[in-house]
Amino acid sequence: MAAGRPVTNAIEVTGLTKTYGDLRAVDDVTLAVEEGEFVGILGPNGAGKTTLLEMIEGLREPDSGSAVVLGLPAWPRNPALLPRIGVQLQASSFFDYLTAREQIRTFAALYGVPAAHADEWLERVGLVEKAGTRVEQLSGGQQQRLSIACALVHDPDVVFLDEPTAALDPQARRNLWDLLSGLNDSGRTVVLTTHYMDEAETLADRVAIMDHGRVLVHDTPAALVRGLDAATRITLADGEVITTRDPAAEIARLADEQRLAGVQVHTGTLEDVFLELTGREYRA
């Protein structure tokens, strides 16, 4: 956000709740995302991330509370809002029997976007060589990249991505990071759910960690790690491990003893924060 510019919220969520029988999928969530901000939503399976995103996108009616996007209520679905948001769902859905080029050109036409601009997006997600291939013949990762391109083809102001890199190989994932960083740098607001801690640390200005339908924390990755107050592990070349809460003093001592060669210092990470808040038990 430009210096001196007043803070404007692109998304304002207040008391958002969704219940299915005895399951409180989203439980009284209040959350704000600033204009031009990149926010990552983390949480175990079943934490409520996708349900929360779908209510903010206007795809699912909340039981109570409200979601306002770009100053407009997300529900009931507002035709004036739809051209200004881009949505990539967890499960890709395409028109039958169309090629990758025909798919994205169809999405573009729905928004009045020229075909040439749609073709540019195929290049940006590395699918030019697959432009004439029918979608059902694309790999899972290629379908994921096409889904992301279709969500972005109309240059929306706010972008919602639900686990966008889940099916991508490491190279494609890094390339998508560059693409998303560029979108955010151009002033767009980006909200994504992810299971990758390194993805959230690299891309997100702030991170919200959810569990059991509630947002437990919402802050910058650095602030969350600082708040963990985790001990630092210092690994020496001979394999000895020193655990300390005063790493500066230990490093100084090792320097005096001329034992710094090969030393590795491991501080707390966002993953440590995540596990501290949500536990380590397996989630189906």
Key words describing this protein structure:
284 residues, alpha/beta, Rossmann fold, 2 domains, four-stranded antiparallel β-sheet, 9 helices, 33% helix, 26% strand
Describe it.
- Pfam families: ABC_tran.
- GO terms for molecular function: ATP binding; ATP hydrolysis activity.
- It is a peripheral membrane protein.
- Helices cover 33% and strands 26% of the residues.
- It contains nine helices and 13 strands.
- The model has no long low-confidence stretch (mean pLDDT 90).
- Strand 1 and strand 2 form a beta hairpin.
- It is of the alpha/beta class.
- Helix 7 packs across helix 9.
- It folds into two domains: 218 residues, Rossmann fold (3-Layer(aba) Sandwich), CATH 3.40.50.300; 37 residues, no CATH class.
- The strands form three sheets. Strands 6-7-8-3-9-10 form a six-stranded mixed beta sheet, with helices on both faces. A four-stranded antiparallel beta sheet has the order 2-1-4-5, with helices on one face. The protein has a three-stranded antiparallel beta sheet with strand order 12-11-13, with no helix packed on it.
